[in-house]
Amino acid sequence: MEEKQKKIIVTGAQPTGMFHLGNYLGAVKNWRTLQHDYECFFFIPNLHSITVPPYVPAELRKRTYSMLAQYLACGLDPESSHMFAQSSVVGHTELSWILGCLTPVGQLFRMTQFKSKSENNDFVGSGLLYYPILMAADILLYNADCVPVGEDQKQHVELTRDLAIKFNQTYSETFKVPEPYILKTCARVYSLQNPTKKMSKSDANKKGTVFLFESPEDIQKKFRSAVTDSGSGIYCDPEKPGITNLVEIFAAVTEQSIEAVENQYRSYDYGTFKNVVAEAVIEHLKPIQAKYAELMADQTYLQSVLDKGREFAQKCANRMMAKVYRKAGMI
Ligand code: AMP
Ligand code: TRP
């Protein structure tokens, strides 16, 4: 009974590869906290992953299971949340068609992500332009109250709100108008090599990005060669982006406040502090890494989680699509 009254969260991360510390601290670790208070749909937007071709189908399939294993290893709970592949639920693409017919093309061409992803590309598929509409369908299909995303996806959630309002006005009250939920803690983890730039998996300088499933030796090496600032003292300061980033990472993995970390480590030299951070990250990741390895060896279990999630999501989607089609005059 109580389950029904919980507010609904819908979110997901594209199956593009392995999480890095930015994805983990900036997104998934927070989803883990939210899952107790909300009814959560943590799906895997695999249809979004083919919007910038080329891609290898067998790789995508593998990465979809890997993404689920990463969700689970990071502590998302398949008992209380619904996890499934976007492509496995009928309704996402259908709803996106209906919503697309209400979307002015100009608004799509103005999307920042469309502009940046289509730049310098010989081939720009219509899917890339349509991407935000599919995302709106993902969200509205489950009547989400809240959509936890990074700053970069906020514009897409705003389009989703516009489309919910437009549909409601055109046909009659149907969708909840969802709120973006921009996560505050560790909203941005910066590159260890260029601490004014976001940590990113597509960074050409691989030394700046710490992936969750790297060996302790590699993690140690990356932190040791982290770019720091001139001067001394371990504390946060806009003039010290390198040390600030390390303090924030350390505070996040050890669940302490920035002040507590500054108080304890202020007099440490940079080299020693880098080792302290590396050790803390390695320790924090150990159980996650072990769990991931265990899960990846058990495809049957992963499939069972997806099947259970799909079954539930499909029921919700069917209910919503029946309503949408009825209101839109489809027989
Ligand atoms: P992406 O890897 O860009 O698809 O992002 C997946 C999720 O991780 C999104 O919610 C992003 O906002 C978040 N994210 C990606 N990079 C960072 C970063 N460097 N710091 C904090 N959050 C990030
Ligand atoms: N576009 C999101 C990203 O790249 C992923 C995504 C697709 C999503 N559909 C969504 C996130 C619906 C939240 C809700 O990060």
Provide the CATH top-level class of the largest domain. Alpha Beta
Q: Regions with pLDDT < 50 over 5+ consecutive residues?
A: none
Main β-sheet, in a few words?
3 strands, parallel
CATH homology-level superfamily of the largest domain: HUPs
The gyration radius over C-alpha positions equals: 21 Å
Shape: globular
Q: Assign a percent range to the helix content.
A: 40-55%
Percentage of residues in DSSP E strands: 5-15%
Hetero compounds: adenosine monophosphate, tryptophan
Keywords:
Rossmann fold; globular; 53% helix; 3-stranded parallel sheet; binds adenosine monophosphate; 331 residues; binds tryptophan; Tyrosyl-Transfer RNA Synthetase; two-stranded parallel ribbon; single chain
Folded structure, characterized:
The chain has a 3-stranded parallel beta sheet. A two-stranded parallel sheet has the order 4-5. Helices cover 53% and strands 8% of the residues. The longest helix is centred in the last third of the chain and has 29 residues, at 299-327. Helix 3 packs across helix 12 and helix 7 (126-140) crosses helix 8. The relative contact order is 0.14. The protein has 2 domains: 8-186 and 299-327, Rossmann fold (3-Layer(aba) Sandwich), CATH 3.40.50.620; 206-293, Tyrosyl-Transfer RNA Synthetase. The protein has helices spanning 2-5, 21-34, 57-73, 92-100, 105-109, 112-118, 126-140, 154-170, 216-224, 241-254, 258-265, 270-296, 299-327, and strands at residues 7-12, 38-44, 82-85, 146-149, 179-182. It is built from 13 helices and 5 strands. With 331 residues, it is mostly helical. The chain starts with a helix and ends with a helix.
